Amino acid sequence: MLHTFNPFLAILVALLLLIGQWLRDQRCRRGWTIEHAAEKLGVDWTTLSRWERDKQTPHERNLYKISEIYEEEIAKTVQLNHRSHHKFIICDA
């Protein structure tokens, strides 16, 4: 059976591979502590910490809440382009 390339699925997989750093960057840009961001997302801070460290990926329902809280469409934020260079923010919060 021949499988066709699904660009949406490819973006979703790549997004999930990058979401931890993206979440941390978004939180740090806003100056939020991990506890504050977790409260806004309706999850425990330890859950958010696991997401940020790529130890766990958010469930689909959490992705909608993440997009709502950070006022952005996640897929637009993560540029999946072989020529782009990702610049990440260092955050100690």
CATH architecture of the domain at 16-76: Orthogonal Bundle
Radius of gyration, whole Å: 14 Å
Class inferred from helices and paired strands: mainly alpha
CATH superfamily of the domain at 16-76: lambda repressor-like DNA-binding domains
CATH topology of the domain at 16-76: 434 Repressor (Amino-terminal Domain)
Q: Whole-Å distance between the termini?
A: 49 Å
Low-confidence stretches: 79-85
Number of beta strands:
0
The main sheet comes to: none
H/E series: HHHHH
CATH uppermost class of the domain at 16-76: Mainly Alpha
What does the average pLDDT come to?
76
| Helix content bin | 55-70%
Shape: elongated
Can you count the helices? 5
Percentage beta strand: under 5%
Structure description:
Helices cover 57% and strands 0% of the residues. With 93 residues, the chain is mostly helical.
How would you concisely characterize the structure shown here?
By secondary structure, the protein is mainly alpha-helical. It has a domain of 61 residues: 434 Repressor (Amino-terminal Domain) (Orthogonal Bundle). The longest helix is centred in the first third of the chain and has 23 residues.
Descriptive keywords:
single chain, 93 residues, mainly alpha, 434 Repressor (Amino-terminal Domain)
